[in-house]
Structure formats: C-alpha cells, structure tokens
Specification:
This protein is α/β, with parallel strands linked by helices. It has helices at 3-26, 56-71, 86-95, 109-118, 151-168, 187-203, 220-232, 247-255, 282-294, 323-338, and strands spanning 41-45, 74-78, 100-104, 123-127, 144-149, 177-182, 208-213, 237-241, 259-264, 274-280, 301-305, 312-316. It is elongated and about 60 Å long. 49% of the residues are buried.
Length: 350
C-alpha cells in the first residue's frame, strides 16, 4: 500500500472514531444543538397578610406560579407571621443563592434595604416600595427593583362609581355618604383612598366621605367593626383597602344591606353586595420581574404600573350598574389615560 493511501486510511479511521463523540456532545434527537439550561431560583416573601389575604400577597403568588409554568423556575414561598420575620426570611433566600428574592409590601422596605446591601450580587424586587434605610430613604441600590403602582388611578374608577350612584340617589340608603376602611396608613393604601375621594367628590360635590384605619391587614374583625361604625354614621358604600382584614368590611356591608367595593383583586365572591373592585395587577408585576431575571434583563430602579399601561383598573361586581355610571366611568378612564385628568396621590382635604 502506498504511503499516501496509508495516510488516507489513518485519517478516515480517526474521523470515524470522532463521529460518535461529536454526535453525543453536539446533537439532540431533533438534530439541534443542546445546551445546559440554568434552573433559576426565585423566593417570594409575603407580608403578614399571608397568602390567603384574597389580595396582593395572593396575586404575587399567582404571578410566581405562572412564571414557574412558563420558565421552569424553582419557586419557593415563605409567609411572614410578624414584622420580625422580614429580615430572616429575605436572608434565607439570599444566603441560598436565589436568583431573585421578591418582597411583598411597603412594610418590608427597610428589611429589603438592609439585606440587599449585604448581598449586592443577589437580585431583589419589592412590591409597593424600595430598598430603604431606617428613615425610609431610598438607597437606590442597583440590585433592587421597585414595583410601584398608581393605586389612585384604580381608586378613582371606583370613586366615580360611588359618586354617580350617590348623585343619582341609586345607592341603598340614598344617604350621600360613602366610606373607606383602610388597613395601615401607608402610601399604597392612601393612594387608593385619595383617588376614591377625589373622584367621588368630583361627581357629587355634596358627598361626604368617611375614612378610618383598622391598623391591621390580616384579622377581619377590626375592619368589620370599623365598617359597622361607618354604616352607623350613614355610609351606604364601603370601600375596603385593608387586605384580608378588609374582607370583614365587605361582609359587614352585605349584612347591613349596603354596597361594598373590593381592592387589589376581583372580590365579588367575598360578599353579595360587592359592586366593583379596584384592581392592582401585582401578579403581572411579579411575573415581569421574574421574566427580566430569566432573560438576563434585570434592572434596578423603579417600574410603575398605572391605568395607562393597564397595571391597575377595576372589575365589575355582583350588581349591574346603571348606564350613566358606565358611561361616566368610560369617560373618566379615558381622560386619566390621556393625561387630561390626574388623580392625586394624597387624600384631598377636607
């Protein structure tokens, strides 16, 4: 055999040896190129309202579960039983090397600021707040994304409903008095109430708006008691802005034969007289934050959800609203979206 032919056979033999190895390393059964897919870990820390608040903690969980389905992430949740749990719960996920740690609620701002400062290589997101120091000052940490909402836009929509109903004498007691049951007096709660009072007063300048706070987000009893007190004073539409506590306000309204308005999610199932709910799409914000990490597009700073980008809105309730209420709702919604009207963030006085 010639030297040239021997070289050819040697090269061919080497190639035949390499083919299986190349096939094993570089091909899939579908003929494509395989790659090792990272399994992202996301930890969700609720506030003291817990997952059964029928509100924003539950919505955050819904967003987490959708992301788990869509992206195949490891999705873990821990419920905080008290404020003292915030730092330990966040720290557990940070020390566990989670790709994203999500804090649900304004009351977790200081905890996020502290833990995110200690773990600069871990991504954090917080619903309704920022990573702050002990005085509430935003630390502007590059590893923290603030997911904020213009709750006043959603509050304004249900305020329009309440105001027109009172102006028309179409509410249960025709009293010209409505109310809001807040949880803790913090910006997200007050934004809702600000938009509600502003819009109701715009529709009916003679309307009276009663406002009170239960200082709770979990136990429904204080909100039930507060709503009953407001109803005793003549309120015949009660807007709950108190998470799981506020379910007590809605059931009180139904028991007393007046209208209720839910918050954060569609709460018409909570009581028969719920006429609408102010929506805050926490599930969308949670999902978007997770998607950004999975797609390597995470950015610290503020992301705001409003009526203009469908981050807030309203859901109809158990009672068909009159045509003039719906027409006014469509009109005011359009004017807010266009910027012609801007609901206030602070509760109007008087």
């Amino acid at each position: 055999m010639s030297r040239m032919r021997m070289r050819w056979w040697a090269s061919a033999a080497l190639l035949l040896m390499l083919v299986p190895a190349l096939a094993a390393c570089g091909s899939t059964s579908g003929g494509g190129t395989s790659s090792v897919t990272k399994k992202y870990k996301v930890g969700l820390v609720t506030d003291t309202g817990g997952l059964n608040d029928q509100g924003f903690n539950h919505l955050a969980y819904v967003g987490l579960q959708k992301a788990k389905t869509d992206f195949g992430i490891q999705a873990d949740v821990v419920e905080s039983k008290s404020d003292a749990d915030y730092v330990p719960n966040l720290t557990t996920y940070a020390t566990g090397g989670y790709d994203l740690v999500i804090a649900v609620g304004f009351l977790m701002q200081t905890a996020v600021g502290s833990v995110a400062t200690s773990f600069p290589n871990i991504h954090f997101a917080i619903i309704d707040g920022a990573g702050t120091d002990a005085n509430g000052n935003d630390l502007h940490l590059s590893n923290v994304q603030s997911l904020l909402f213009r709750e006043q836009d959603a509050g304004a929509l249900v305020g329009v409903i309440a105001g027109v109903l009172e102006k028309d004498g179409a509410s249960p007691k025709k009293s010209g008095i409505i109310s809001a049951v807040g949880g803790v007096s913090i910006p997200p709660v007050n934004h809702y109430i600000a938009g509600y009072k502003w819009a109701a007063t715009m529709e009916d300048p003679n309307i009276k708006v009663l406002i009170g706070y239960s200082n709770k987000f979990d136990d429904p009893t204080p909100c039930r008691n507060l709503a009953n007190s407001q109803i005793d004073q003549g309120a015949d539409i009660v807007f709950q802005v108190a998470g799981g506590c506020g379910i007590g306000a809605l059931t009180a309204a139904a028991t007393r034969g007046v209208y209720g308005i839910g918050v954060d999610t569609d709460q018409k199932a909570a009581a028969s007289t719920v006429i609408a709910s102010a929506l805050k799409r926490v599930e969308v914000a949670t999902y978007d934050a997770i998607q950004a990490v999975v797609q390597n597009k995470f950015q610290g700073g503020v992301t705001t959800f409003s009526l203009q980008n469908d981050g807030v809105g309203y859901a109809p309730g158990n009672i068909t609203l009159p045509a003039d209420v719906m027409a006014e709702l469509t009109k005011i919604s359009g004017e807010i979206k266009s910027g012609q009207l801007t609901p206030p963030a602070d509760i109007p006085n008087p």
